[in-house]
Amino acid sequence: MSSTEVTIVVVDPADLKPADAKRLTVREGDEAWKIAELREIVTSLNADVERLVIELGVTEHELDDLLHTSEGAGDDQADAGSTALEREQEMSIVNNTRDMLEQSVDALRRITAGTYGQCQSCGKGIGRARLMAFPRANLCVQCKQREERR
Q: Is residue 4 assigned to a domain?
């Protein structure tokens, strides 16, 4: 199976300066980012990227094995159906893992670019509490709810 390449981005938390934290967008009513908070998020995102790269390699390998498993003439319909279901589940896991990896890398890029914390739909601040809980968030709560209703 050929996988979509994800260009991995790793940000060294020690390279971040207080000015990097202060330039990030914050939701109205929120305090400015503190450098320690930003470094914590970067550390978490870097760990996610490392873990997800490993998971993606394992799941892609498992999917590749499943895709190359031949359905011999001796397989009955139940075996063939079971194999097809297993392939679909592995494909779903690979796609979900790849999406999470891309989201984590995108969050690191946004931190580097100084756009982290800014909703990619409306441009307003996402909110520090939301980002601390879900560092890959790229939409504010209102825009995310609107997207999910569609």
A: no
pLDDT digits (tens, 9 = 90+) for 100-137: 999 999 999 999 999 999 999 999 999 999 999 999 99
The structure's pTM equals: 0.81
Helix and strand counts by DSSP (H, E) for the chain: 5, 0
**CATH number of the domain bearing residue 68:** 1.20.120.910
Total count of domains within the chain: 1
CA distances 43 to 49, 68, 102, 108, 120, Å, are 10, 38, 16, 10, 23
Euclidean distance between CA atoms 127 and 29, whole angstroms: 9
Residue 47 burial by CB count (10 A; 0-12/13-18/19+): exposed, middle or buried?
exposed
